[in-house]
């Protein structure tokens, strides 16, 4: 069975876990009322995780460009391959767009992003209250689109595994 490379699998699952963790941390932090040390800590962790996702996304794209994925499974209809390709394009776009929108939102709000508490990332522009409101909405909409896309992607993989009983999921599992 042709499979993805171990590096592709590692990057896939690491990014997936970080996206899920970042999403739920984001939900938790915004649910904390007021301003507290815990909320501030969660915001910092959320930003660190977002930057890490962005860095790993760059590695994923570089790996994908230099390493061909396994061939399509011939047992899957072409229309499903087209949907899967579209979903992968959407997921890659969102893997970049969500953290970038959060980064820009943070700077529009006048709050620097200090990666791992060590390196202050460059400010692309001065704080801007109007842009802050727009970017907050953009970040939220992109995040919810990402969440829905990740759920759809996971459900499709499970459908292939448990209903179709094909090798789609197994090709990405480090067995």
From TrEMBL:
Q: How does it sit in the membrane?
A: Multi-pass membrane protein
Is the keyword Zinc assigned to this protein? no
Q: What is this protein called?
A: Cytochrome b
- Entry keyword set: Cell membrane, Electron transport, Heme, Iron, Membrane, Metal-binding, Transmembrane, Transmembrane helix, Transport
The regions listed as transmembrane in this protein's record are: 12-33, 45-63, 89-118, 138-158
Q: Which Pfam families match?
A: Ni_hydr_CYTB
**Gene3D superfamilies noted in UniProt:** Transmembrane di-heme cytochromes, Chain C
Q: Which cofactor does it need?
A: heme b
């Amino acid at each position: 069975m042709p499979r993805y490379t171990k590096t592709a699998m590692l990057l896939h699952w690491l990014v997936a876990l970080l996206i899920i963790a970042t999403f739920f941390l984001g939900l938790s932090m915004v649910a904390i009322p007021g301003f507290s040390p815990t909320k501030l800590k969660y915001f910092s962790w959320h930003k660190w995780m977002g930057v890490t996702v962005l860095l790993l996304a760059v590695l994923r794209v570089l790996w994908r460009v230099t390493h061909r994925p396994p061939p399509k499974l011939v047992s899957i209809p072409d229309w499903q391959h087209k949907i899967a390709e579209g979903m992968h394009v959407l997921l890659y776009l969102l893997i970049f767009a969500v953290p970038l929108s959060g980064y820009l939102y943070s700077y529009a709000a006048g709050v620097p992003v200090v990666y791992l508490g060590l390196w202050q990332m460059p400010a692309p522009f001065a704080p801007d209250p109007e842009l802050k409101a727009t970017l907050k909405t953009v970040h939220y909409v992109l995040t919810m689109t990402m969440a829905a896309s990740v759920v759809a992607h996971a459900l499709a993989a499970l459908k292939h595994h448990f209903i179709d009983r094909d090798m789609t999921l197994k090709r990405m599992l480090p067995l």
